[in-house]
Amino acid sequence: xxxxxxxxxxxxxxxxxxxxxxxxxxxxxxxxxxxxxxxxxxxxxxxxxxxxxxxxxxxxxxxxxxxxxxxxxxxxxxxxxxxxxxxxxxxxxxxxxxxxxxxxxxxxxxxxxxxxxxxxxxxxxxxxxxxxxxxxxxxxxxxxxxxxxxxxxxxxxxxxxxxxxxxxxxxxxxxxxxxxxxxxxxxxxxxxxxxxxxxxxxxxxxxxxxxxxxxxxxxxxxxxxxxxxxxxxxxxxxxxxxxxxxxxxxxxxxxx
Length: 256
Fold this sequence. Notes:
- There is one protein chain.
- The chain contains 8 helices and no strands.
- With 256 residues, it is mostly helical.
- The chain has one domain (9-222).
- The radius of gyration is 23 Å and the shape is globular.
- The two termini are 42 Å apart.
- The mean pLDDT is 87.
């Protein structure tokens, strides 16, 4: 697969997060193989493999949508879209991103309190292994949805393409939002009054700092760069080795 180019701060952050998540399935396969080996060969099953696979699998499920948005590979229905003139197609694109923006705002607004409470008390799964799945994956839902929304807006102003001042404005806004949220959240994460373990706090702060540096680097690298409009010219029929008569809906007559 040929990946779409990475332009701008949000693209670069989405790509980096996705690259880390791509190792998740291999990790899950490895620990399940380890569990099968211990259970059926040494008769010593583990307590942590099942919950760990659920934990990592949930994170992969969330972040895969971010990669799909950055690569423009999410499911889209083109029955009406392809029949419309370009100006109507632009309107459709704007409406889809607007609906995503409203949905993201509603979910973040309604779920922030619960996510913050689960994180502050470091809510665990309630099993023998007892991983902090609710405390980590609930905030991850909101964070990923925010990034998906920013990625959709970034795609919209690059694929048509938009005026340079609008593209640069969106890049500045996205960078300021991500860095500002990180600066606002770091003191709360480091607050010793929370139940978050020390090394988890260090890891979360490191993730916020690295994410901020990534978007700042992406902004600096691509601020004056004119992106190439994305045009999906791939025709699935090209992957099929069929006669032209079949592809046009007129198959040759069957010879007896």
